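Below is one such record:
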Amino acid sequence: MTAFYSEYQKVYLSVDCIIFGFDSNKLQVLIGRRNMDPGRGEWSLYGGFVRSDESLDDSAARTLQELTGLHDIYMQQVGAFGNIERDPGERVVSVAYYAMINVKDYDEALLQHYGLQWIDIENVPKMYSDHNEMITKAHGLIRQKMKTEPVGFELLPDLFTLTQLQRLYEAVNGEEIDKRNFRKRIKEMHFIEKTKFIDKTGSKRGAYLYRFNKASYQEDPNFRL
């Protein structure tokens, strides 16, 4: 390290990760109790300080991998949060990222290890510092993103019913969708493929399972829902 900038006050830099999942027709977020001071015991997102040898994206990716055990997670930057008194311990600026995962891919043992739990988005409690603000902003970004890009499939299993897909969009947007119009729009999208498999968990007749064909979408990335 050099002696440059020694006349300036040091500011700590951290990342906070907002992990979204979808289960039981609900959009959920992963939170836990803070296990360090200040704010020990308060509800919190999972995060950490950026290391001197990593970029912001690398720090967020490392944090997400530690937390979930999953690789190549879809993530996007939410923004920087730097109110002067946001952390009573030191001057800390945090850059928030949101990630989207399939809840079924998450190792239940990691929930126990880190003391985390999935909370429905409408039931998020009062959280440490500005973490509620981070979640609200990330939720808004997902709403906008899902209108123009098929990122919602990150929250679903590889095979899904059209009802599951509709419930996902309703959960994210917080409003009901007309079934007929929704299915008509979906069937116009060549990259959402009907398979020969049938899900019979909901009824004896069952429902056809569909899949998202990423390669087909990349060839013709037109999406608007």
Summary: Residues 160 and 209 are 5 Å apart (CA to CA). The radius of gyration is 20 Å. The beta strands are 12-23, 26-33, 43-44, 46-49, 74-81, 92-100, 116-120, 192-199, 207-212. The mean pLDDT is 93.
